[in-house]
Amino acid sequence: MITNKQRLTSQKKIIMDYLASVDTHPSAEIIYQAVKRKLPQISLGTVYRNLKQLKKSGQVIHIPYRGTTYFDANLKLHHHFICLNCGRIIDFWSSTQNLNNVIGKQTDIGKIESYKLIFYGKCHKCFSEEE
Amino acid sequence: MITNKQRLTSQKKIIMDYLASVDTHPSAEIIYQAVKRKLPQISLGTVYRNLKQLKKSGQVIHIPYRGTTYFDANLKLHHHFICLNCGRIIDFWSSTQNLNNVIGKQTDIGKIESYKLIFYGKCHKCFSEEE
DNA sequence: TGCTTATTAGTAATCATTATTAAATAGATA
DNA sequence: TATCTATTTAATAATGATTACTAATAAGCA
């Protein structure tokens, strides 16, 4: 029998509160440092475990960049702009997605040099192999 | 004085040839395994170093997924579809970029469940701080 | 052909993340 | 409220991907 009930621990609450309080996109390590100020005995593994769970349950999204994962608890549909110089990840609230002439465009955040668009789903092969 | 001349070594050539020959999106490890069949003494570090250089000079693009980096030498503008079930990364040649109603859409590759759009460039802050 | 410097193989080190485990605790139930 | 049990925790070891280091090799220009 599988019981799969998520429990709201103080650790998870503090992690979620922290994520809700920032408009940056912190890594697990940064979250750990911040959260440790309120809960000094928390361990980095706990931060990772909770982030994984929150990701799985759709409460946070993640942005991979240069080998590390950055987190975002803002679930309103938006995109991201990453500064190739300082590494900052900035929310990008564009209404239109005409990507045809976007390269070189000046936006309110900065100048777009490139972009990456990745779709996720289930391929036909996997779909047809389902039991 | 800075000299920055790239040399075409046999290792680099074989890596590029391999990437040009596939329509999959191999990781450094997979590339290493493939390339080793032609050049048995090649080392994994050499593969990584060359991929890094090719990336820097714009000859390959990379797709990060679940902690590993996948490579693509096809420079024609296209996107990617990642199967959340089998992990396969498939080229996605969509002509339109209307992302508004894309979730749930059935495509010739599979069913889209989500997507990620990331822009890269230089933020205003970094631009203005330039000397 | 010789010279200079980028590149290599081999290996150690690093970084981000996950696994392991015994103890603690959330939250359901008596 | 006390009890119970599966989930979560802290601490730490382990893993996986990637980078750094170093002496030897080899592009490719003069």
Helix- and strand-based class of chain A? Answer: alpha+beta
Question: What's the architecture of chain A, going by CATH?
Answer: Orthogonal Bundle
User: How many E-type strands of chain A?
Assistant: 5
Query: Biggest sheet of chain A: strands side by side, in what order?
Result: 1-2
Pair of chains with the largest interface and how many residues each contributes: A-B, 39 and 39 residues
Ends of chain A: how far apart?
21 Å
Write down the secondary-structure element order of chain A.
Answer: HHHEEEEEH
Quick one: overall form of chain A?
Answer: globular
Kindly state the mean pLDDT of chain A as a whole number?
94
Name given to the CATH homologous superfamily of chain A: Winged helix-like DNA-binding domain superfamily/Winged helix DNA-binding domain
- What portion of the residues of chain A fall into strands of 2 or more residues? 25-35%
CATH topology of chain A: Arc Repressor Mutant, subunit A
Using the CA coordinates, give the radius of gyration of chain A: 18 Å
Largest sheet of chain A: 2 strands, antiparallel
Give unreliable regions of chain A as ranges: none
Q: In percent, how helical is the residue content of chain A? A: 25-40%
Summary of the model, kept short:
The structure is a homodimer. Chain A is α+β, with helices and mostly antiparallel strands.
